[in-house]
Write a structure and sequence with these properties.
Length: 475
C-alpha cells in the first residue's frame, strides 16, 4: 500500500499520509505552523465538532443537506466526541488568523470519516466534501467565536466545582481555627490580634467572590453569533438557521442557557466578552496567589519563621538538606497563577487587535483562556485536597507571637491616648519586654483592668477594649 495519497487544493497537489483523516489544507497548516509543538486543546476541538454536528442536524431538518450525508457527518462527529480520532487534530495553536486552519482540520476529519462510513475513500471527498457539506452555511469567522463561547461554557462547571471545593475547605478551617488567636500583621509588621479562623473564613469569602465574578462574566458568553457567516450579515445562511442551530447546540452541548445573539455582526467583531471572562480568571489568579503566599508565610520556619500553621508534607523539600519540607503545593499554585496572569495579558492584547469585521487573533485567545481554565481547575483541586484540607494550626506558636506583638499597645489607646500608647510600644521593642508586662510593671492602668483591656479574644471582635477608660472623655 502507498504510504501517501495525493490531494489537491487551490494551491496545487500535496502528498498526505495515507492513513490520515485530515487532508491537504490541514497538512499545509501543520507544515506552515510548526511553532510550539503543541496540539489544539481538547475543548477547542470538541466545541468545533459540536458546531459541525449541530449544523448537520440543522441542515438535515431544513432539507438543505440530504439525510444520507447529514447522518454520516453526525456519526463521524459522535465518534470524535466519544474520544476517537483525537490524534488527527494537529494544527498548532499559533496558526493563521481567525482559526481557518483549525476549522478546516475539523472539516476534513469529519468529511473523510463520513465518507468512510458511506463506503468511500479517504481523500476523495465524495459524497461528503469538507467545505460544501461539513462547512455548509458556516465560516471560520462565525464558528470560531462560537467555539470560544461553547468551549469556555463547557469547561466552566469543572472550574466552578474546583473553586467551590476550595472555598468549602477554607471555610471548614475557618470554623476549626476559630479559637486560635494570632498576631495580625500589616505591612509585614506587628498589628492587632486576629483569629486564625477569621483569616481562613476571609479566604473562603474571597474565593466565593471570585466565583461570582466568573459566573457573571460567563453569562455574556451564552449569546451566540452562529449564522453570521463571513462578516456577520448571514450571507449563504437560511433565515431559520440561527434558531435551529441554537436549539441543536443546546442539545449537543448540554448547555441549556445558550441564546441567539441579538447582533451577529457585533458578536463577530468584538472579543470583549471573552476578554472579560479572561479578566475574571485573572482576578481569581490574583486572589488565589495572594492566599497561597500567605500560607507560605504562616508556615515559614519551622524554627526561623512564623510557624503558625503546619502544611501537609507532600514530598521531601531538598536534595541536600535532610528533613527539609517545603510548601510545595502553594509554590505550584503561585506558578500557575503567574501563568494565568500572562495568559490574560495575551488575551487582552489579542482582543484589542481585531480589525473591522473579525478578530484574526482568535486562535491565541481561545488557547490562552482554555489553558488558564485547565491550569486553574487542576491547581485549585490539588490545593484543596493535598494542602488546605490537611492544614493544622500551631496554636502554641500563634500564642507566642501574639503576646510579643508591639501592636497590643493599641488596646491601651482609649485609656492613655495615642502618644502614650506609642511610647509604650517603642519601649516594648527597645527593651524586649512584653506590652502586658510593661502595663503591669509600670501601672499604666489599674491592675484590675489589665486582663480585661488585654483580653486577646475580645480584641479580635468589634468594640472598645473592655474596661478601658476613655482618654478623650471630658476633653
Amino acid at each position: 500500500m502507498s504510504l501517501t495519497r495525493l490531494e489537491r487544493d487551490a494551491l496545487g497537489e500535496l502528498a498526505v499520509p495515507a492513513d490520515a483523516l485530515y487532508g491537504v489544507q490541514t497538512l499545509r497548516a501543520a507544515r506552515n505552523f510548526a511553532i510550539s509543538g503543541l496540539r489544539p486543546l481538547e475543548p477547542f476541538v470538541i466545541a468545533q465538532v459540536w458546531i459541525k454536528k449541530a449544523a448537520a442536524l440543522t441542515h438535515k431538518e431544513t432539507g438543505r443537506l440530504d439525510a444520507r450525508r447529514a447522518d454520516a457527518i453526525i456519526a463521524a462527529a459522535e465518534e470524535v466526541l466519544a474520544g476517537a480520532h483525537r490524534d488527527q487534530f494537529i494544527v498548532d495553536p499559533y496558526q493563521a488568523g481567525a482559526g481557518t486552519s483549525h476549522n478546516m482540520n475539523v472539516n476534513e476529519v469529519l468529511a473523510n470519516r463520513a465518507n468512510e462510513l458511506l463506503g468511500g475513500t479517504r481523500g476523495r471527498y465524495t459524497p461528503v466534501h469538507p467545505n460544501d457539506h461539513v462547512n455548509l452555511a458556516q465560516s471560520t469567522n462565525d464558528t470560531i467565536p462560537t467555539n470560544i463561547r461553547l468551549a469556555v461554557l463547557g469547561q466552566l462547571p469543572s472550574l466552578l466545582a474546583a473553586v467551590d471545593g476550595l472555598s468549602a475547605a477554607l471555610a471548614e478551617k475557618g470554623i476549626a481555627f476559630d479559637d486560635v488567636i494570632k498576631a495580625g500583621r500589616t505591612h509585614l509588621q506587628d498589628a492587632m490580634p486576629i483569629r486564625l479562623g477569621q483569616e481562613f473564613a476571609a479566604y473562603a469569602g474571597t474565593i466565593g467572590r471570585c466565583r461570582r465574578r466568573l459566573t457573571d462574566a460567563a453569562e455574556y458568553l451564552n449569546d451566540l453569533g452562529i449564522g453570521g457567516s463571513a462578516v456577520g450579515t448571514g450571507v449563504t445562511v437560511e433565515p431559520g438557521y440561527p434558531a435551529l442551530m441554537n436549539r441543536y447546540l443546546r442539545e449537543v452541548t448540554g448547555i441549556p442557557t445558550l441564546r441567539i445573539g441579538a447582533d451577529r455582526i457585533q458578536l463577530m467583531q468584538s472579543m470583549g466578552d471573552a476578554a472579560a471572562f479572561s479578566a475574571a480568571l485573572r482576578g481569581l489568579a490574583l486572589d488565589l496567589s495572594k492566599i497561597v503566599s500567605d500560607l507560605r508565610l504562616m508556615a515559614s520556619g519551622p524554627r526561623t519563621g512564623f510557624d503558625e500553621i503546619v502544611l501537609p508534607a507532600v514530598q521531601p523539600g531538598s536534595s541536600i538538606m535532610p528533613g527539609k519540607i517545603n510548601p510545595s503545593i502553594p509554590e505550584m499554585v503561585n506558578q500557575v497563577c503567574f501563568q494565568v496572569i500572562g495568559c490574560d495579558t495575551t488575551v487582552a492584547i489579542a482582543a484589542e487587535h481585531g480589525q473591522l469585521e473579525v478578530n484574526v487573533m482568535m486562535p491565541v485567545i481561545a488557547h490562552n483562556i482554555l489553558l488558564s481554565m485547565q491550569l486553574l481547575s487542576n491547581a485549585i483541586g490539588t490545593l484543596s485536597v493535598r494542602c488546605v484540607q490537611g492544614i493544622e494550626a500551631n496554636a502554641a506558636m500563634c500564642a507566642y507571637w501574639v503576646e510579643r506583638s508591639a501592636a497590643l499597645a493599641t488596646a491601651l489607646m482609649p485609656s492613655i491616648g495615642y502618644a502614650a500608647a506609642a511610647e509604650l510600644a517603642k519601649r516594648s521593642v527597645r527593651d524586649g519586654v512584653l506590652i502586658r508586662e510593661l502595663v503591669v510593671r509600670d501601672q499604666v492602668i489599674p491592675a484590675e483592668d489589665v486582663d480585661a483591656v488585654l483580653d486577646l479574644r475580645r480584641l479580635t471582635d468589634i468594640g472598645v477594649p473592655h474596661g478601658a477608660h476613655d482618654a478623650s472623655a471630658g476633653s
